[in-house]
Amino acid sequence: GDADLHAEVLVLGSGPGGYTAAFRAADLGKQVVMVERHERIGGVCLNVGCIPSKALLHTAQIINEAEEMSHHGVKFNKPQIDIRELESWKSSVVNQLTGGLKALAKTRKVTIVQGEGSFTSPNTLKVEGPDGEKTISFDNCIIAAGSRVTKIPVFPNDDPRMMDSTDALELEDVPEKLLVIGGGIIGLEMATVYDALGSKITVVELQDSLIPGADKDIVKPLFKRVQEKYDNIYLNTKVSNIEPKDDGLLVTFEGKDAPEQTMFDKILVAVGRSPNGKLINAEAAGVMVTDHGFIETDGQMRTNVPHIFAIGDIVGQPMLAHKATHEGKVAAEVIAGQKSVFEPMTIPSVAYTDPEVAWMGMNEDEAKKQGIDYVKGAFPWAASGRSLSLGRDEGLTKALFEKETGRLIGAGIVGPNAGELIAEAVLALEMGADAEDIGLTIHPHPTLSETLGFAAEMAEGSITDLM
Ligand code: FAD
Q1: % of the chain at pLDDT higher than 70
Q2: Whose CA is nearest to atom 14 of ligand 1?
Q3: Mean pLDDT of 377-393
Q4: Is 164 annotated as a binding residue?
Q5: Which one, of 438, 419, 320, lies nearest residue 377 by Cα?
Q6: 200 with 176: CB under 8 angstroms?
Q7: Which atom of ligand 1 is nearest to the CA of 19?
Q8: Which residue in 58, 71, 46, 52 sits closest to 192, CA to CA?
């Protein structure tokens, strides 16, 4: 045909979904082309998401811990922060990973084409890149074009003092007064970073809780801690106007707990992400896109067009990297003729705040709403020797078990390292473990991991009196 290049498998987008799918398809013997508009591959997660945020959050954790040591008889001087050096260290972490990915693509003979891709037919994609325009034909396609920051049109988004998560990760300066709009995972993670660097933080959230979606009991300890640290947290509050002034941004709030107006030096808008479904000319391929920009798939990640698949943020919630990678594997395997299917029992979520908040499966409100008869175990970390030895006692490990079968149906953990600890609960749920299985599993002492065992024992009734 007229194509400049042909792919057995064309992958659109090089984020965690895209590169995982591309690598898996190549490993299964397919000839793969991956299209990415940016010079650097790795998508949002690697370049402006998971990885740079975790690099900065590690820095924040060290700063916070050093400060806390002053209550344990060890005093450090106030940290001297060289924002340029910190920024360049963070970039070096990102560069190392995206460079590594490029090398992995090369060993697998995955061809990377740089440029903006849009469909021109059910079997061709046009790519406009730095070296002009190319048409790539394909047998199968995997759409992994991800999502972008959601903007609120009435805000003065062009003002340089307005930031989205990408801007906030590019450390420029440390604003004295920072407003974070959105009390979800991304907003709170960036608040954690800027608080540690020295900003005075205000968080405003439309709903009645931070991290709506997580179990209320595990959000409470985080709320308590940030309430002490931050200037203000306004729940049930809307930002109705932002007016740029010479000496700051004048914000108008609507909500009974917030003042009517306050000035801030900078504002981070973290109100969610929008899928890129409407930006790839999917109609030309006959692929259906919802009003919100999502692409629907079946359990094998197939769109309504049988040889075109979609994965990652563009197919729906939760918009998380580990969901994208697992979906990517399934799509590649199905294309290679394997009988794979994406049907996880649960997908864990983690807020890498201080303390971390992690959860999976059902939370207690959901169990109640669905009329499920459950028993719960909630183990306070104040009774964990390991937690106390860290100088922290606010953590909680909570687990829900179905009464009839005893099986684990949900768990939530708050405290340092909760994100690492939740993985055991995910495995337990996937394996159909019950409270006795978890309780009888010998966890090393003294560790934070014991708390899941104790929560299970509490649910079983084999330990009741804690303190
Ligand atoms: P993306 O990573 O969005 O990649 C899509 C790629 O496609 C991009 O590189 C884009 O440039 C490219 N693309 C799009 N359209 C075109 C086109 N037309 N032509 C060519 N290329 C195109 N998730 C976690 O699991 N853990 C975390 O800790 C975490 N932290 C985050 C922190 C922040 C600040 C943000 C913003 C997100 C975070 N996420 C985290 C979410 C995570 O980044 C996403 O879920 C993940 O990147 C989705 O992967 P994806 O492959 O679907 O798409």
Answers
A1: 99
A2: 145
A3: 95
A4: no
A5: 438
A6: yes
A7: 51
A8: 58
C-alpha to C-alpha distance for 210 and 203, rounded to whole angstroms? 9
- b/e map of 118-132 (b: 16 or more CB within 10 Å)? bbbeebbbbbebeee
pTM of the predicted protein model: 0.97
Q: What is the DSSP string of 125-136?
A: EEEEETTEEEEE
- Residues 378 and 385: beta-carbon distance below 8 Å: no
Instruction: Using alpha carbons only, give the angle 194, 197, 202 rounded to the nearest 5 degrees.
Output: 35
Q: What is the pLDDT of residues 340-352, one digit of tens each?
A: 999 999 999 999 9
Q: How far apart are CA 407 and CA 379, in angstroms?
A: 18
Cα 192 from Cα 57, distance rounded (Å): 7
Instruction: Please determine, for residue 426, whether its predicted confidence score (pLDDT) is greater than 90.
Output: yes
C-alpha dist (Å) from residue 428 to 270, 453, 456: 33, 11, 11
Nearest CA to ligand 1 atom 45: 320
Mean pLDDT value of segment 427-438: 98
Gap from CA of 97 to ligand 1 centroid (Å): 15
**Is 73 annotated as contributing to ligand binding?**
no
For this structure, is 445 an active site residue?
yes
Quickly state the pLDDT bin for 463 (edges 50, 70, 90): low
Q: What is the DSSP string of 420-448?
A: HHHHHHHHHHHTT-BHHHHHHS---TT-T
**Is the per-residue pLDDT at 225 higher than 50?**
yes
CA distances in angstroms from 17 to 127, 166, 394, listed in the order given: 20, 20, 36
Query: Helical H runs in 108-239?
Result: 165-169, 185-197, 216-229
Residue range 62-73: average pLDDT? 93
Which 8-state DSSP code applies to residue 314? G
Query: Beta partners for 76?
Result: none
Q: Is 137 a residue whose pLDDT tops 80?
A: yes
Q: Is the pLDDT of residue 53 over 50?
A: yes
Per-residue confidence (pLDDT) for residue 467, from 0 to 100: 44
